[in-house]
Fold each of these.
Amino acid sequence: MQITITEIAPRDGWQNVNEYIPLETKLDLIDRMFAAGIQRMQAGSFVSPKAIPQMKDAKELFASVLARYPERSIFALVPNLQGARAAVECGLKEITNVISVSESHNKNNTNRTVAESMAQLAEIRETFPNLALGLDVATAFGCPFEGETSLEALMGYLAQASKVKLDSITLCDTVGVAYPAQVKRFVEAVRRELPQVSLEIHIHDTRNLGMLNTWTAVECGVTHVQTSLGGLGGCPFAPGASGNTATEDFVYLLDKEGISTGIDFDKLLAAAVQMHSVVNGNYSGHQLTITNTVC
């Protein structure tokens, strides 16, 4: 068995850092992540810099990263058609569009209704028919405004979304409210109803269930897992959201369980330590905490 780790710190982690991270620092950290064996990365997002100031250098960052690592799987998150156009102009062959199951969160996150966002998703596909298009299902498990997401609500949402040709779906625990029984039920339902679409999992660790929920998804057959170096992460438009499952923590677990990732744990941890020293954020990675305490 092999698990593909998708590193999302350059997007989900850094978007929550208030102090601007210089482009040179970002590129150095991305170099270190790739040197550790990361093969797939969500390296940023094409959003309004007024909404997410940290992403104001997205065009320059992607131009550099794509030139340095043409063989790696590198993609961006986009909230709308304008973002998709910017991503394609930078040379990206893959994007993910984010739409919430929750009407309240979608309005806070993108200033659109879910129906309006679904229409935009269809427009992105029509405009770029050959682009690898993924869907980040925000608030897949629960919403800070509307509470726990029901399986019926999720599957109804996916029935609408799957009218568009999607290459991947990522179930996102946007605010870290998921629990193992729910993860198992939702993952099994999505795999059963949409077997043709690649399924990823994206778990936040708000209630210290990040590792357990992510592992539960793997036990249910998910082979693509999104994690964030150092456990950085959160959502600026979701009260209470905290960091993601830490990449180094999950790679450590997979290594001990004999599951291949192709990632060198020591190099990955060294990258996390370096990021901790130059980026001021809310880190939740346990391996990083242990290392810093020992040092």
Amino acid sequence: MNSTPPGTLAGRVRVDAAGDFPRLVALHQQALRAFLRRLCRDHAQADDIAQEAFVIAWHRIDTFDPLRDFRPFLFGIAWRKLRESRRTIFRRLRREAAALENEATLPDLNLRLDLAAALAVLPEQQRAALLLCLVHDFSHAEAAEALALPLGTVKSFVSRGRERLKAALGEA
């Protein structure tokens, strides 16, 4: 989707950081924010974590292997930042009570609410794997890298999560 071919733009960032890093941000910020918003359902917090992830990626760009895809590197940073941010029950409850994200791709409000409720009951790692693979077009391997999980675990999360969503939405 918004993936940079391995060894291209992200690799040049080391040479021309002022010119190319803003292009990486532009390529990935929308997908990263959407991913984070679906996980924590607090738009302000999701945007803050996305911004932090880009800052960390900027500072760690020397550790990035330019032969690899930048997306798993960036989304992995964001995933870890999100997990760090969930330290207190109060913050978690506040996120759960936040308004549901408006999904433009789903025409029916009831379906959007049903989907949001079905996603909310999934364990966080399973929900993250589903969102990366089904919404953000990550391969299972890219999602595994971003979430720092074994490939088989991500495949299981996606398969079981898809079945749980179908059951929750009343599909055969």
Amino acid sequence: MAHRTALVTGASGLVGSAVVNALVEDGWHVLYCARGRPSPEKTGVTWVPYDLRDSLPADFGLGAEVLIHGALASGSNKNSLPVNVAGTRLLLEAARQNGIERRIFLSSLAADAEALSDYGRQKYEIEGLFDTRVDAIVRPGLVIGDGGLFRKLVEQLRRGALVPLIDGGRQPMQTVLDDDLAKAITRIARDRIAGRFTIAEPDPVDYQVFWAEVASQMDVPIRFLPIRFWLADLCARLADKLPIPLPVNRERLLGLKAMLAQSVTSDANVIGQSLHRYDESIRIALPKIVSSLSRKT
């Protein structure tokens, strides 16, 4: 039986790597789209050099039946918006020309036309390039795994950095383990599911409770810095201009302020699996992060 083939952009990132592994385990061949080769080399994976800023060869993605788009240009979000939108348009055009009939976009819970953050507005604008009658848009919660924002914040805790507690730290956080998310995306690809889906644990946990749990499992003390949003915002604006390193930049600060609990009941039925609770996800992910950090020191 011939392998199904999936084209995955952003394949080297936290979510992309988990999706590649889940697809290969499910019997897919993966076109691994990233600037660098996968390390180590993976069976069932073919590296395709890719950058959102670059033009694409005429045969880009030829032979794939599904596109999973997770690449996002880094840098200033305002400056990267044209790059990400234009790059996604180019990618979708290549997909159409080369017969890729199904597309999955990895978006964010922050995606909203009126989002406070550039990141949230950017994700929302890119969502508009997809057609949910035939495509799937996936909005994951905070992804817990060895990479991305979660790893950066774990590194901060390990260094003993202060954790800002904005307006009491009551923001509702909904999380998803990277492997759970990857399995859900693989099922969407395999079963040709279209629509917009929120993939996160259904019961939110307060921001303060979440980070206290991470610190407890790491067995490190946590030092919260209670601060009002307006003052934190002022500090972040000044830090962006100088620049001064802060535990939370303005984009993350605006994301925190805009956090709202999302309903995921029907989406959980669609993806057909139960997700790990936040504390279970932390317990699974932390040993990998701590081990890799220990090797670097």
Amino acid sequence: MALSSLEQAIILTISYPDQFSYPLTMSEIWQRLIKQVGEWWLVLPREVTQKQVAKTLKILLGKKIIETDGTLYWLRGRSFLSDRRQRRQRMSQGKWLEVDRAVAFAEKIPWVSAVFITGSLAMNNVDQDDDTDFMIVTQANRLWLTRLCLSLYAMALGKRRSWHGEEKRSWCFNLWLEEPALSILGEEHSLYRAYELLQAKVAFDRTGVAKQLRLTNQWLREFLPNAAWSGGRTVTSGFPQETWLSRLTSRLNTIAFELQFWYMAGHMTRERVTKTYAFFHPRDTQGWIIDNWIKSLTNQIDNVA
């Protein structure tokens, strides 16, 4: 069955979140429309409008490649996803109340520049026992002191996730960055990274970090040309002047890094840890997502054939 480039792009766009059991609305399909996968580019019109997407969705419905309940769209044979998304959206509301508690504490730490929610909760797509994923951005030379404070707070509330990851409903501080290291997020230009950046939600932004991310990651539109970034409440705040106290705090941060790195050394697998950033992803998340995406597409192609 011959498919136009826009039809292919829409199928790719619907199938990517399908592995998370997450059907999309028409406007979400337009915003997340995929143009590039690895080295493969789709030749799309210079500017795809929502009207064009709506028209193409009708064509794909007529070809019985996708299905809809009138609001959400999914691959053929996945109609159960509509109820699942609505149920998980209701479940997510309670998770956001827990996020408010964590963010309220983070705001009290003067070195915290911004807090982002990532993963499933950022999409309002969680079950009751799911973890909550955070990205924390700090001032320069303050990451490891901040991590120590937040880890102790999570531990006191029984929310800290251990290396075994057996705890339910825990807080996972997976991604840590100092403001000067924000560009590290753009070193890997991939659809996976673009999607993660797009769906991250701002919970707190003291120094305009969200704007900095937009400015330093314009490459994202190479993969998702219609991507729009969500805002957040922003409080403008400059860096403190260098004083004997700030120099002492920087030294304490170095000691905190050395102690935490020593503790983590025996547990680390795929983690990337430096003094200015830390990615705590022991699983090959990107590989897992791409593998499942290929399976989803393969099943769809078999069904259409």
